[in-house]
Every structure is written in C-alpha cells, then in structure tokens.
Specification:
The complex is a heterodimer of chains A (111) and B (116). In chain A, 0% of the residues lie in helices and 57% in strands. Chain A has no helices and 11 strands. In chain A, a hairpin with a 7-residue loop joins strand 9 and strand 10. Chain B has 116 residues and is mostly beta strands. Classes of the chains: A mainly beta (111), B mainly beta (116). The interface between A and B is medium-sized, with 25 and 31 residues.
Chain lengths: 111, 116
C-alpha cells in the first residue's frame, strides 16, 4: 500500500529563517510526486510536480527536490505570507490519477 | 483566484434535506474529482470522472450521488446526510486521467458543509 509521511507536523519560523520540509514515501513505482500549499478554508494550490530522482523545481522562495525515497521542500528566507499547510502527494502507476496525500506540515512564519 | 469554481461556499443542511454541490472548470480538463477533507486531515478521494464517465467510486455511501452533466460541470447530490459528513468538499480537475498520465490536480476552494 502506498504511504506518504510528512515531517515535521508543524513548524514555526521567523521571517528570513530558512528551513526544509520532508516528505517520505513508499510507492510501487512513482509516477509523480506533487506538492501543494493549502491556506485555511481554501482548496490546495498546486506548486510542483516531480517525476524522477534528482529532479529539482523552484518557484520564488520554494525549491522542491526528489530522491528515490523522499522529497524536500526548501523554503529560503520565508515571509509571513508563506504561512500555510504544505501537502505532499504521490501517484502510483495504474491508479488513474488517484493521489495518496500525506498529513501535511503546518508552517507558521512570524515577523 | 482558482480556475475551479465551487458553489455554494458554505452550506448548512438538516439530515432530511436534499441539496447539491456544484463545480465548474473552463480549463478544458477531461477529468474531474470530488474529495472530502476533515479538519487538519488530508483530502480523501470520493469520486473520479474521466471523459464524463464515472471511473472511480471509493466505496462512498449512496447518500452521496455524483453527476457529470458535461466536461465542464460536476455536481454532488446530497441526501439524508449524517452529522459526521460535515467537512470541506473539494472539487478538482486535471487534463486527463489514466495509466499513462500524471497530470496535476487543480482544486477549487471547496464547499464547507455542516450537517445538523
């Protein structure tokens, strides 16, 4: 069974304090790993798709990386507006776009 | 603003009521999804439509009835719900679904449903 574990569960950073979120996964053949950001009361907002080990993608202060067992979301010099829950999800072959989500990391960035 | 639009944003209904949730997308996507999300939990898949045909039903109780009138619209009909069905109901779409694809899902902002 596909499994996704995210850590830490919650993270509090000061503005400008860089850090990384972890997503460990177990899947029988990864078709894609997805990162989403979710603000309270809103739907998940798509950030990145990673397909193979070694791949990296960047968007503003966010950088996602992928190995064969885990993915990291690096946040460089975060700002308060980066506060959100970050969700990781994996798709296995033959699952018709069915995603297995992790429980997320709640990030709070303070001034 | 999301490109997947859900209405209403909030809904309160009694256990004997019948109501419907609506979802619309104009991105030309051919796969649409219903997810349920409880507080501080990840989204849980309920249904998948591919080219307007139901392709996945995750053993959802029959009090939830999905409908896909065309490639842009997705409805979720609700009847005789229980208080534990209270949650955020999310609609999503993707370019396509199937074995050879890994299109990202694009979510709407959901309908916050409260069952009294």
């Amino acid at each position: 069974e596909d499994q996704v574990t995210q850590s830490p569960e919650a993270l509090r950073l000061q503005e400008g304090e860089s850090s990384s979120l972890n997503c460990s996964y177990t899947v029988s053949g990864l078709r894609g790993l997805f990162w989403y950001r979710q603000d309270p009361g809103k739907g998940p907002e798509f950030l990145f798709t990673l397909y193979s080990a070694g791949e990296e993608k960047e968007k503003e202060r966010l950088k996602a990386t992928l190995t064969k067992k885990e993915s990291f979301l690096h946040i460089t010099a975060p700002k308060p507006e980066d506060s959100a829950t970050y969700l990781c999800a994996v798709q296995a072959p033959g699952t018709a776009s069915k995603l297995t989500f992790g429980t997320g990391t709640r990030l709070q960035v303070t001034l | 603003d999301t490109e997947v639009t859900q209405t209403p944003k909030h809904l309160v209904m009694g256990m004997t009521n019948k109501k419907s949730l609506k979802c619309e997308q104009h991105m030309g996507h051919r796969a649409m999804y219903w997810y349920k999300q409880k507080a501080k939990k990840p989204p849980e898949l309920m249904f998948v439509y591919s080219y307007e045909k139901l392709s996945i039903n995750e053993s959802v109780p029959s009090r939830f009835s999905p409908e896909c009138p065309n490639s842009s619209l997705l409805n979720l009909h609700l009847h005789a719900l229980q208080p534990e069905d209270s949650a955020l109901y999310l609609c999503a779409s993707s370019q396509r679904t199937g074995h050879a694809t890994n299109s990202p899902l694009h979510f709407g902002n959901g309908t916050r449903l409260t069952v009294t």
